[in-house]
Request: fold
Amino acid sequence: MIFAVLGGDERSVHLVHRLLRDGHEVRTYQMERAEAVRETACPTLETALSRAGCVILPVPLAAAPGVLNAPFGSSALPLADLWPLLPAGVPVFSGAVKPAERALAEEHGLVITDLLTMEELAVKNAALTAEGAVSVLIQETDHCLMGEPILIIGAGRIGKLLGTRLRALGANVTVSARKDSDLAWCRALCLGAADTRELELILPRFSCIVNTVPSPVLSGERLTLLPQGALVLELASKPGGVDLSAAETCGVRVVNAGGLPGKTAPKSAAEAIADTIYHNI
Reply:
């Protein structure tokens, strides 16, 4: 099969190598500054898309509103210019596709599969994020994690997987959630459990917090309850869950660690993306 890979970060570079190893023909565009895949670069978008049986767009799709996410590209490619050129009826994959972007693509008869909505990839990405978060916590603290009280806000895939990994390192982990079912899972995994709606009762006990909830759970009022110099690791997608201006005022250090799979394990993330695409097509 001919794959057209348009834009993307280090994950896309490793994805190209995986597809080539599997015997496929790969054509890339907006990746010309990536030395490792320069031999696959096409001079025009039309050349890259010619006879393509599958189009792979970046994860996330856009780095800026309406512009293809292409850090290795030499120029900006507006999505409005891309959609009319994509071949109708050919599978198109991407990730973090916003409703407005999807609607515009559908106007051109395109159906985009958002990889991040597929459970197979979501679970693998959560595992990679959890591992990367452990690495970031080790780098950003001046003490070992063993015995450290750590609060994880949110008991989704990432929250539970990260909780079990930190517990294995000896940390005293508490996970907060709103649903009784999520709290039951936390207790079943031998993790402390707390109600996110009642964080005020426990925040003073933690100088290390990990947020996975993309809504304002750490408001200015709650941040004042944290010890001076507390660390908040932000894993949630934008806009995140931390009042950044209030955190600075309160002396709380916030480390934004969104998109960890592409930063700490791009090759493994690419393998997960490739497997998911293969299973889908």
Summary: The CA atoms of residues 37 and 166 lie 37 Å apart. Residues 119-140 form the longest helix (22 residues).
